[in-house]
Design goal:
The structure holds 2 protein chains of 2 kinds. Chain A is an alpha/beta fold. Chain A has 17 helices and 16 strands. Chain A is elongated and about 90 Å long. Helix content of chain B is 62%, strand content 10%. Chain B is built from 27 helices and 11 strands.
């Protein structure tokens, strides 16, 4: 499959003699040594990764790890010392000024940590900015900007100055400004770090909602592991200018590639990262509604379980029957499962976080059923896997 | 940050105020403190140094004799001649070796009449004065490739037909005659001569502001090989150094002189004068000075020696004492002559060099190289400066024409409206009243002229300053290059700016504007640079990340963001221009500053106060209005 963005062997060196440092790097000198001996700082060191169309790619790292430099390389705010950045098959590092301007105007937009809003312009003026640069006429850009403002929920605020708005609202302006130009790619440089936790959570959810609708390719920088694992389809962990691991949140959680990452994800609240689909298993035994009581008893006996889910046509979940009910019904010579179906189990969707299942898990004695949108059963979660997850967090 | 800038500007206003108060109060104190300064050591004799070389030489000669022969200590006080004569009258100064009586008669004669000073002798009175031209104007100068421009020019009466040679840069349809410094007697005489010789039709009489700037105008013209005609006198180092020709006139005749001065100048009586009180207490000194007599020829010779050998006045004095023993031995009793000759050291305190003096051998001639550079500039870039001068002149004259075209009541109304719109109606009213008062003091035209120069200076400063500031903000190299220059421009005493301005542009409005720009452009550059550097990096990044060009970032983000600070810079620039315009009256800028200058020369309290308070009013009006405009640009941070 072709990627939206491919970054190959990207290096960024700060200082007056980058060539010198580059030589040293290829000889294998350490960052520290190069800094001491040549005065050149390695910002990003030989980074390669790919981003798929429509995914949220999160880059996480501590401050000074080079993540902000890396994201600034992607739109050439910071010019890479060497390496390639291929967007839609074109190496943008080789763009001339005009091509670069056009690329920035149409393909990419950026959202900043401190919002980067123009304090001398109104909210509308800010959102219009990218369109104004593209010389789109006034009426047209007003219309587009108003739509973007509405999209982020700031309707009615368009004539305020940014300084009159709260932090969360200011970042919505930043987001609207980015969306107004309808870019394929959104670069988000710690966009929610400056917000307080409650608002941060709102904004995260809002971003996910927007992403459902808009399906942009998003590169998201953060230093907050929980945020990274919550938003990221895939996450890259950076340290000292290098990417140390790339993978889905679960992959990283389950198989940290080294001690550093282990340390890094140690504090993470697994229940906020792990979703139902990650811990569900294929049910060993399922009976069909038309199968009858005897089959159900056999299935349970065979699998040594005391209850079994009953599905209808197309594996849609119909209910659950217990072994006690089945035996009692057998004695009364009933044959249809319909009469003894119970409905006091819980269902959930695959992308529900474990955190949100804890309450259900403690209330029910049955496994929790995971279904898709059409109520088809795709798996079950036994209570122990949720509750043991809780324990792991404590450990 | 912003607040500090405002304070700075307040300081400028305070300086203006303090300056005026000092100037006025200084005058008042002359009247009261009329006794000898009792704090001074009794056997120290204080000479007046009025700033020219011959008086320094005479001071050195007299001082040497008084120290060696009579055992006195000596000292000098420097000041322009009317101020020196004031000092002589009240006893701060004991002796003036060269009192050009006619030129300082406003202060000199009352001093004699009141018995505050005594005339001890006539140092010399065979001097010449009148209208001079550089000799190359008549004869050309082969060495310098100068053609004779006015070969038939002999006498003052030939001047009308040559007016085009001496074109006035401020008024190209007429010639310019450089006049005598204001309130010298010769100033009045020349103004009358302009009428009686019918020069008024073709020439403007140009007030040079001071004798120093008159000198500079000659030096500047001479170095460039340009025509020049104006008042000068001999003995002076100028006449010693430069080949100047005195235009002929009718021989001196009392009757003609009395009738519109239609003949040559008589020699000015140059006297040795002393404070009366001092003279009474020091008969021995009086005895010596009563015999002190030299001549124009002798003085010129000494000046030439000084110029040729690049000598200090003390060295000239020594040379004189060696070469002209027959002259000075006549002045003093035999035994004192012996005393001086016998002095084994033969070195007075004037020559003493102990460990506490910096070694004379170390002589870094930094100024000399700057002078050479300036000379090179005038020689090679004259065309450029001429064009620049013409441009500046065009702007000033048009602004001035525009300002003068506004009827006075409309102008006052405009000031009121401007004050009302920018500050509030009360302030507008106050500014209008202030403007009215300036008119009432009879300084309306002067105000307009000052305003025209300020506006021109500010406009050009902004045109130059903002782009430089922008460039500085984006280039650290440029910043480190400009910073010392700006520091220099702002801390260098503002008078120093006048010198290159004069050299490049002569005297008049253009150099005044030029000096004003050099002085006032600095805050504009500085604050533009600062303002743009203070634009948050993320904001700049945001602008670039949406595909803005450099120009779009500048015009849509950086400049709007920087505007409040830039406006503060413009306000400071305006105030700096205002203060410089006053000072640049010394090189012939007309307007309010000229009145102040004349008042200083005449020690005229009333005129000084009127023009001083007008400057304060004008400064307040301009400051408050520009400040209010800059405040309007302030947006919530």
């Amino acid at each position: 499959m072709s990627y939206k963005i491919e970054v190959k062997n990207l290096v960024k060196i700060f200082g007056s003699k980058p060539g010198l440092a580059l030589d040293r790097l290829s000889r294998g000198d350490t960052k520290r040594k190069i800094l001491d001996e040549t005065g050149q700082t390695i910002g990003v060191n030989d980074v390669s990764f790919e981003v798929k169309e429509g995914e949220i790619f999160v880059i996480i790292g501590l401050s000074g790890s080079g993540k902000s430099t890396l994201i600034r390389c992607l739109n050439l705010l910071s010019r890479p010392t060497s390496g390639e950045i291929i967007v839609d098959g074109e190496n943008i590092v080789q763009y001339d000024k005009k091509q670069l301007r056009e690329f920035r105007q149409k393909k990419m937009a950026m959202v900043f940590q401190q919002f980067g809003l123009f304090t001398h312009r109104t909210v509308l003026g800010n959102v219009e900015y990218g369109l104004e640069i593209r010389k789109i006429d006034k009426e047209e850009r007003r219309k587009i900007a108003m739509e973007a403002i509405e999209e982020v929920g700031l309707k009615g605020w368009e004539n305020k100055m940014p300084t009159e708005l709260s932090g969360g609202m200011q970042q919505r302006v930043g987001l609207a400004r980015a969306l107004a130009t309808d870019p394929d790619i959104l670069l988000m440089d710690e966009p929610f770090s400056a917000l307080d936790p409650l608002i941060r959570r709102d904004m995260q959810l809002e971003l996910l909602n927007l992403q459902d609708k808009l399906k942009k390719t998003i590169i998201f920088i953060t230093h907050d592991v929980n945020e990274a694992f919550k938003l990221g389809d895939r996450v890259a962990v950076m340290k000292d200018g290098e990417i140390v691991q790339i993978g889905t949140p679960e992959e990283i959680l389950e198989n940290p590639s080294n001690a550093y990452i282990e340390d890094f994800v140690q504090d993470i609240d697994r229940t906020k990262v792990v979703q139902a689909k990650d811990v569900m298993k294929k049910p060993n035994a399922v009976v069909s509604l038309k199968d009858g009581i005897k089959v159900a008893i056999k299935e349970m006996e065979y699998n040594s379980i005391s209850s079994v889910f009953v599905t209808g046509k197309d594996r849609t979940i119909q209910g659950i029957v217990t072994i006690d009910d089945c035996i009692r019904a057998a004695k009364e010579n009933k044959s249809s499962l319909k009469d003894i179906l119970r409905h006091d189990y819980y269902t959930t969707k695959g992308d529900t976080y474990i955190q949100d299942l804890i309450e259900k898990a403690t209330k029910t004695k049955y496994p929790i059923v995971v279904t898709d949108d059409e109520q088809k059963m795709i798996g079950i979660i036994v209570r122990t896997s949720i509750l043991s997850g809780l324990l792991q967090k404590g450990a | 940050m912003i607040i500090r800038f405002f304070e700075k500007k307040k300081i400028v206003i305070s300086f203006l105020l303090i300056g005026i108060i000092l100037f006025v109060s200084g005058d008042v104190s002359y009247a009261h403190d009329n006794t000898n300064n009792s704090n001074r050591e009794n056997n120290t004799i204080v000479f007046a140094d009025c700033g020219w070389d011959s008086i320094r030489i005479h001071n050195a000669i007299a001082a040497f004799i008084l120290e060696k022969g009579y055992g006195y200590n000596t000292d000098v006080i420097t000041g322009s001649s009317p101020i020196a004569i004031r000092g002589l009258r009240q006893g701060d100064i004991d002796i003036c070796m060269e009192a050009w009586t006619d030129n300082v008669k406003d202060v000199y004669e009352p001093g004699l009449e009141n018995g505050e000073i005594v005339e001890l002798s006539v140092n010399f009175d065979d001097n010449a004065q009148g209208l001079y031209v550089p000799t190359y104007v008549i004869k050309g100068d082969e060495e310098r490739n100068i053609e004779p421009i006015a070969p038939e020019l002999r006498s003052i009466k030939d001047l009308p037909k040559y007016w085009e040679v001496f074109k006035d840069p401020d008024e190209p349809s007429r010639g310019r005659i450089y006049g005598a410094p204001p309130n010298w007697l010769s100033d009045e005489i020349l103004r009358t001569k302009m009428e009686t010789y019918d020069l008024k039709k073709t020439y403007d009489y140009f007030n040079p502001g001071s004798d120093t700037s008159l000198n500079t105008s000659i030096v500047s013209a001479y170095e460039k090989g340009e025509p020049w005609v104006g008042y000068y006198w001999d003995p002076t180092w100028i006449i010693g150094k430069y080949d100047m020709t005195l235009l002929e006139d009718e021989p001196f005749d009392e009757a003609k002189w009395a009738n519109g001065y239609t003949c040559e100048f008589p020699g000015v009586k140059v006297t040795v004068a002393a404070n009366k009180h001092f003279a009474e207490q020091h008969p021995d000194v009086v005895g010596f000075l009563e015999n002190y007599e030299t001549s124009t020829k002798l003085t010129s010779e000494m000046l030439a020696y000084m110029q040729d050998n690049d000598a200090e006045a003390e060295e000239v004095a020594k040379w004189f004492l060696e070469e002209y023993e027959e002259v000075w031995t006549q002045w003093i009793p035999e035994e004192i002559v012996e005393e001086i000759k016998d002095d084994p050291s033969s070195e007075g305190r004037w020559f003493k060099q102990g460990l506490n003096g910096f070694p004379e051998g170390i002589n870094i001639r930094l100024g000399h190289y700057v002078e050479l550079f300036v000379q090179w500039l005038t020689e090679h870039c004259q065309g450029f400066f001429d064009a620049l001068g013409a441009g500046i002149n065009w702007i000033v004259s048009h602004i001035q024409m525009f300002l003068k075209a506004i009827p006075w009541f409309i102008f006052i109304l405009l000031i009121f409206l401007l004050g009302w719109k920018t500050v509030d109606w009360k302030s507008g009213l106050i500014y209008a009243i202030m403007t009215f008062l300036i008119g009432g003091l009879g300084l309306w035209n002067e105000m307009m002229f000052t305003l025209a120069i300020v506006i021109t200076g500010v406009i050009i400063s902004i045109i130059i300053g903002i782009p430089i500031g922008i460039h500085m903000a984006s280039s650290s190299k440029m910043e480190s290059f400009m910073k010392p220059l700006l520091d220099g421009a702002q801390t260098m005493p503002s008078f120093v700016h006048l010198i290159p301005a004069m050299i490049f542009f002569g005297l008049g409005t253009v150099p005044a504007v030029f000096a004003t720009i050099i002085y006032s452009v600095a805050p504009c550059i500085r604050l533009t640079n600062l303002a743009i550097r203070r634009v948050p990096e993320e904001m700049r990044e945001a602008a670039y990340s949406y595909g803005s060009s450099r120009w779009q970032v500048l015009t849509k983000v950086e400049l709007p963001q920087a505007m409040p600070t830039i406006m503060t810079g413009i306000n400071q620039t305006t105030m700096a221009a205002m203060s410089m315009v006053v000072i640049s009256s010394m090189i012939g800028a007309k307007g309010l500053g000229e009145k102040v200058l004349i008042a200083i020369n005449r020690t005229d309290v009333a005129m000084g106060f009127d023009s001083g308070i007008s400057i304060v009013f004008l400064a307040i009006i301009i400051d408050r209005i520009t400040q209010a405009i800059s405040n309007k640009h302030e947006h919530v941070e």
